[in-house]
Design brief:
about 300 residues, alpha/beta, globular, 10 strands, three-stranded parallel beta sheet, three-stranded antiparallel beta sheet, GluQ/Sye
Length: about 300
């Protein structure tokens, strides 16, 4: 029988803030609500070395410990797992589902603009397929997943999946995203490939994360299928919004949570619990508050063993 396994996978580009603590607490509760055999893992997603800050991964682990959110195994670091991603990419190449691309973002934007499509901030650049038939002597800048080719073999272009909170979701990845990047030419692995490979390698069965990542799910399911990996169960939590109405993030100045004292850590956890629809705790310390939320989570989201 498969062991129920969840994970929290922060990027060490800054300390935990209110929004990331919501995801951490939700993923921890979802695992604990499945019984004592379930596992909660922490993975530091530090493949984008340009944005990651030295020592920040360790700081995040310390913040989680202050909140009594302790993983059941030693945390792993994506920057040390490149060999796994390389094997997955080679497998996709062998299946003719990955190809080199020489296009820059500027070139893609110019091609899309010629077709009357302007890139919106935060939106997807739907790759126009320039390099599908070859580089024609140009230097590759990235490897892309051949979404168009993979989806052409399916009976339905629209990929459907069910989110445990949001219900039925669907996306035509070829039309709405295009052939997405798996690895940049300068080395970093793309989030989509790394997360799929890591989840499978670590035995993850359930992904609980913020609703801002809903649009990534269809791409990840496509990669899971292409690599012959299990499809996971997904739950996307409500977002914490900033003063500007946008998702609270490090990019828009989200303040780090204060975990320097048990009282401060508990206050941060109570704020996260409120976002998740859980009752406030009157406990004195985080470790005493967490058990009281497990049954409330079970009633709300009915996690399966």
């Amino acid at each position: 029988m498969t062991t129920p396994t969840g994970r929290f996978a922060p990027s060490p580009t800054g300390p935990l803030h209110a929004g990331s603590l919501v995801a951490a607490l939700a993923s921890w509760l979802d695992v604990r609500a499945r019984g004592p055999q379930a596992r909660w893992l922490v993975r530091i997603e530090d493949t984008d070395t340009e944005r990651c800050l030295p020592g920040m991964g360790e700081h995040i682990l310390s913040q989680l410990a202050d909140c009594a959110l302790l993983p059941d195994a030693t945390p792993v670091w994506q920057s040390r797992r490149g060999a796994l991603y390389a094997r997955a990419l080679e497998h996709l190449k062998a299946l003719h589902l990955a190809y080199p691309c020489a296009c820059s973002r500027k070139e893609i934007d110019e091609l899309l603009a010629e077709r009357g499509v302007l890139h919106q901030r935060g939106g997807e650049r739907v790759y126009p397929g320039t390099c599908r038939e070859g580089l024609h002597g140009r230097t590759p800048r990235a490897w892309r997943f051949a979404t168009e080719q993979y989806e052409a073999a399916r009976t339905s272009r629209r990929l459907c999946w069910t989110d445990r909170r949001l219900g039925c979701q669907y996306q035509d990845v070829a039309h709405e995203v295009g052939d997405f990047v798996l690895q940049r030419a300068d080395g970093p692995w793309a989030y989509q490939l790394a997360v799929v490979v890591d989840d499978a390698d670590q035995g993850v069965t359930d992904v609980v994360r913020g609703a801002d990542l809903v649009d990534n799910t269809a791409r990840q399911i496509l990669l899971q299928r292409a690599l012959g990996l299990p499809t996971l169960r997904y739950l996307h939590t409500p977002l914490v919004l900033g003063a500007d109405g946008e998702k609270l993030s490090k990019q828009n100045g989200a303040a780090p949570i204060d975990t320097r004292t048990p009282a401060a850590a508990l206050a941060a956890l109570n704020a996260a619990a409120r976002v998740l629809g859980l009752p406030l705790s009157q406990a004195a310390r985080p470790a005493e508050a967490l058990p009281g939320w497990i049954e409330a989570w079970r009633a709300l989201y009915n996690p399966r063993p």
